[in-house]
Amino acid sequence: MADPGEIKNEEEDLSADIKDWSKHQVRQWALKEAGVDDKFADMLLQQDIKGSSLLLLDKTDLTDLGVTLGPAKLIIHARDELLKLRKEHPTSSVNQSGRPCKPYPFHRYHDTCRYTENSILDVTESGASDYIEPCHEYKAFINTSDENKMSKFTTDVIRFAAACMNSRTNGTIHFGVGDKPDFIHGEVLGVDVNDKEAYENALSYAISDYFEHKHKPAAKMCIKPPRFVGVLNKDMTSSEKCVIEVDIVPDSMICKEDFYHISLDTKKGKKKAKGKETDKTETKQSKHFYVRDGSSSRDLLALTTYAKPMEEYNKFVDSLPQLSQLRKQAEEKHLKVIKSSHQGSRLSQMITGGSKSLDKSHFERYVIVTNKSHSIQLESMEFLLELNPTAVLDFDPESDKTGLQRHFEEQSTVNVHLPVQYKITEGVEDIASKLKLTRNTSWVFCNGGINDEAPSDTEYWFTDKGASVRDVISFLCRKDVLPNKRFLVIFLLLSAVSEKTDPLVETFSTFRQELRGTEQILCICENENAFTSWKDLIEARYGINISGRCIYELSFAEVNGTIRSLLSENRKSSRFLSCGGGSKVLFEKKVERSLNTLDVLCVNQCEGGNEDKIAIEENFYKGGKVSWWNFYFSEQPGSTPFIKRDKFDFIVNTVIPDLCTLRKACVLFNLMHVPGCGGTTLAMHTLWFLRDKYRCAVLRDSNADLAEVAEQVVKLLMYDHEEQLPRVPVLLMIDDFEDMDKVFDLQQLIEKECMKKDIQSSSPQVILLNCMRSESSEQPETTAETVFIGNNLFENEQKQFEQKLVEIEKTYKNAETFYGFMIMKKNFSPEYIQGVVRNTLKSFNIDQKHAQLIAVLVLLNVYCKGASLSVSLCEEFLGLQPKPFCGSGSVEDEFGKFSTLISIISVEAKVVFKAVKMIHSSIAWHCLKELTATHNVKKAEITNLLLTTDKLYESTQGKGTLMQDVHYMLVKRHHSVEEESQFSPLIQDIASESQGLEEMVLLNASKRFQKDAIISQLLARYYYLKKKDFKEAKDWAGKAKDLSRENSYIADTSAQVIKHELKNAIANDKDVPIKPEKFSIFLKMARSAIHAFKETQDLAKKESVQRLQNKTRQDNCPFNTSGCLGEIQVGVIVIEILAKTPIFSSGNVRHDIMSRVLSGDSKSGIQEVERHDPMRNKHTRYYSILRQFEDVLYNLKFRMKLNIDLLDNFYVNLGSRCGMKDSREQVARIELFRCFKQYADLFCKTDSADLLKNKTMHTMLQVHHARQSLEFRKADTYCGILNCLSNPVSNLTEMMEKIARQYEFVLANAADSNVKERINFIYVNVVLSCIKPGSRQLQPYQKLLDLLSQVLRGQIPLSDNLPLHFIAVALLWPQQHLKPAEPTSLGRYVSQMRTSYHAVMKEVCNGKRPVVHFFMGKKQGYERLVHLGEIERCVKAGQEQIASMWVNGKIWKEKEVEELLCRVTGEVQGNLIVADTCIPDVKIEITPMFRSQLSGRAVGSKVSFFIGFSMKGPLAIDIN
């Protein structure tokens, strides 16, 4: 037999390669892994079977040696399995080491520790050390057959347990951990366990079987139940495997001085019976006494060659009392002592930057970096919800299935991202906006696991994913994304990090580099072991000690409790929404955060109070924006009530209740206010007062995606309300919208969303409180839905301000600096404001940086209302070095004496950030005036400072917003109904104040906005309008076009440059007649301009169709008409040029000749004119030039008429989105009228007076004259005829009767009368009936219907389809006493009208609604058609009020209107209504004007409504 020591040494030196094994190693392997009896293992030893021999053996060789069949098969099978395993797992060779890891904490069962496949336990198999430190033994347990698994497990555990108990040492035996020679020592392999309970039961039975009866209780107490530790795959995903561990704890109180023998079964060879071998194997129980001897358990009763075999055993037994005593002493020494830790206080300090309150934390944002979590940890992660992290970098690929992300998402809203989404491929703020980075928590999966991205093993992560994760970190640490030094990165180590190649180590390194240190990094470790490992890795790699930035003595439960204790009572309390009638519903945090475009006002808002009352009130009184806290504080005992503005009761008691009676899903009222007069405060006060009755919210960002806003508004409406009817409406305040179009867009989108959710709208579901700045302090036209707040207090308001001042002066020592309050208290006195400004700016010096900033802020505030500068930008500009902790100085202090003029606000833009703004618009305006008057700082100087100072545009938060605001100031023009301004107010004011400097400003703007087509366009406009430098203008227009080739407005600028150059050249040409050289140049320019305007038209149509087809994003920008109008204008100029030539300038006959040439009359071509010109020799050069431009001249009338008709069609048939005509187009319509007048003077008059006096004039000439006269009055088109109803002139009745007579004459006498003229004649009669119902010129109604029927039966040109079917539907709608000849055709006419509308209008109708020309009245005949003018006369209100009443549907509630119109019944069919008629079998499909009025109504339900007739088809209005 081999000496045990020799065998032990051999075992320790096992080679990874089988062929290198010694014969002793082969014997050991056969016993341990093949599981054969000692005698068969000894046979291999005796035959000198080494590793190389073992590889060559087969079953026959073994049976020849005397090894029976069973053991032979076991040996061969075990060898083959080992070879197979080596092939499959080459990483298990000793040449490739896995990552080191700590063993599972001893004698613990609920820790979060897990192993990773092929990681290496960093403890070796060992004997007793200090009795308390556990010894370890590893068993691969993967080649054991299923039938032998349980017996091997119990035998190995009992043997190891007995050894530990006798040696009085703690110990852990691991199954599923490899050992030499097959694996690296301590390599985690994992085993499949199907039935954990079976292992527990088997071990319990084994203890009873193997230990002596008297020791069974002690053994059961010392041998702990099996622990099943999960094994992760190398890419950190879960596997089915685990490591089975059994802890042995020989407590001195249990073991005392006992010693433990065990009885194990041993197998003997097969018995022989009568000379034959039997199949029976004899089992014999033998007694063993195991002790720990180094890394193995040795049996002191085993047979040995040693001379005195029992001597060692006896000696050990004798030493047991001493061993027991040593064990007891070790236990006492290691008793846990309560540590006095200060880490709770440190955590409070570090996570808030020193404030020890999350409400007042120095850190505005938190970024979390974390790794694999355990289910036990998740219940202690509530603190993450309160931190509401901006981003979480999660390295657990299963986080969305079983980890932290899934747990977090159950309670909050997250946006899941992959690192690649953070790569900078466009504007930084645009990326942040798309990712909703500062709106919801961005959860970045840094090791795959989502979107089919596979996770990577640790060794491959750096090359696979390292670069993209670095991009994420760089992006987050940019100063224009998160606030500099005001965000904290928290490394939340949920799993121990034990390898230098772990991704978290690399992530820490990148954050440390980006943040230039560790001051903004906090590490939270679960225990001291995890901390030690993390600290050592960081120190080894970077040479820094991060102990001071780590929390490791607190459990996660303690971390959770500590952080949550930093919340105020208000933040801790639950929030509730109104459900009506005093009932409330809990507003879940997840839902609230999902409504990220809305600031939702809860019924118990501010509950719990706020310790910052003084600071909040001071900020408000100084001029900061009102907050919900201000209303709350005013309701507390001892406070005077919040000042109630004069219009408050009217809004609450009249306006909103009236709106609630309407039948639209979304209704609107406007609160117009002069900036700085308290309009926003009044709106918020209204919401605060009504929060119990409505679900109130404020739109956070006026530039938010309106479709998303609509979705969230309806979600708020429906929350916990799906079944309940009626619902509590949402009262949504919207602030700072630029124009009403956006308000209507939002209203329309909310109605669409209500339809999508099938919400019945018999009453308003959403009320929009539109708080909008008024450009004028003059009170606009008052409407039932518009309230105006001006800068003049009523007497009762002044009294309230006096009372409030008394309260303020008692509380605050610095009340004199509360300028926001005092300006209102002084009733907006200019003298008071001027005094404050003059006194504050006394020491102003433009060379000082803080003075430059205040000057820029002032300019921004005056020309871009509500503009601000981000705090980060101010800090950078002023050269401040902010620190990541409280009390490190505020930016307001750096403004010195000017700090009383500014306040800090939160800006909701693409990225949410803190900013500095002027406290009051009046203060800003007076400051700008004072800077100019007293300090000689002109607007041009400040603007140039703003444009040329690069420091203002470095990567800081708010850079994008600043760029937008500067762009707005330079570009945005203010238009009135009468005229269009040429430039923005800023540019016009600079030109007035410092003439010529505006050019320098614009050139500097072009350098700041190098890639901006609109700025280049602005310069082009400046050069052709102001400087008359057309070469420079063309260059800038060309640059603009290069930057934006598909933009019709940019293309129009190029055309306008040529047109203005032409006009300027003509104006400067004093020659009469015009010289041939100039004539040629002018016509060439005109041709260029016409081509340019045609290009504009093509682009405009293309844009309009694209907008119409865009289903993903609604764009209501209307058709650009400038190309059409521009071509008409050039046509007029060409007529003026021709009139200056000798060919066309002499007398009326020449006038007629020009008309015929420009009409393309083949008999009046230029050659013919030349042939008949008696002075043709003198005019040869002119004729030569004219022939070069025949393409332009012969088409001139046609093109002008085409564009005039297109624009008439656009203006007459399409109106604003409320279905009424758009008054904002007035300027363009005035210009169109001027151009048409010149067109008509040339083409619509026969100036040959002698022909007109001839009474025997040929009939055809009379017809021609009549047609010219009709065209002169625009009565040659149905649009022109309809337009007479909305643009009445003084002699309208007389004119319409004349038109009727002329048409009657034409139709009676013209041999070539056409369908269009007959249709127009019908329109003339209808319009005349509206203007003068009793006119003698009116055709009998039935006769008109007969004419209509005749036209309908004939051939109809495509161009006449739309007007014919429109008037047919209006006139042939069945009447009680007058039924159409073919009533069933009416439905077909409606269908054809809709088809024609799309064909004719698709290029121009985007962003518009078809105008409702007529309504169906109660009377018969002509009088049944009621035109819009009659309804407006019933209402007796101004245009603005009528538009407002139309939008909200109030107009239909007017008694006179109801008496005038006929209410029709019908049946709902999906999105349409099938209208009943007086003929039972005739039912017509009509479209609701507002589709939302049908939502929630079942198919087949009966409704009633008024009918309006538009070119798109009949419309159902005011559906009940």
Main attributes?
seven-stranded parallel sheet; alpha/beta; six-stranded mixed sheet; 63 helices; 41 strands; 1520 residues
Strand numbers in spatial order across the main sheet? 17-18-16-15-19-20-21
* Count of runs of 4 or more consecutive helical residues: 63
**How would you state the average pLDDT, rounded?**
86
Helicity range:
40-55%
Name the structural class.
alpha/beta
Distance between the termini: 106 Å
**What summary fits the major beta sheet?**
7 strands, parallel
Radius of gyration: 46 Å
Query: Which stretches are low in confidence, meaning pLDDT under 50 for 5 or more residues running?
Result: 1-14, 91-96, 267-282, 1247-1253
| Total strand segments | 41
* Overall form: elongated
Strand content is: 5-15%
Task: Please give a quick description of this structure.
The protein has 1520 residues and is of the alpha/beta class. A seven-stranded parallel sheet has the order 17-18-16-15-19-20-21, with helices on both faces.
Description:
With 1520 residues, the chain is an alpha/beta fold. Helices cover 47% and strands 14% of the residues. The protein has a 7-stranded parallel beta sheet with strand order 17-18-16-15-19-20-21, sandwiched between helices. Strand 35 (1412-1416) and strand 36 form a beta hairpin. Helix 46 runs parallel beside helix 52. The longest helix has 34 residues, at 1076-1109. The radius of gyration is 46 Å and the shape is elongated.
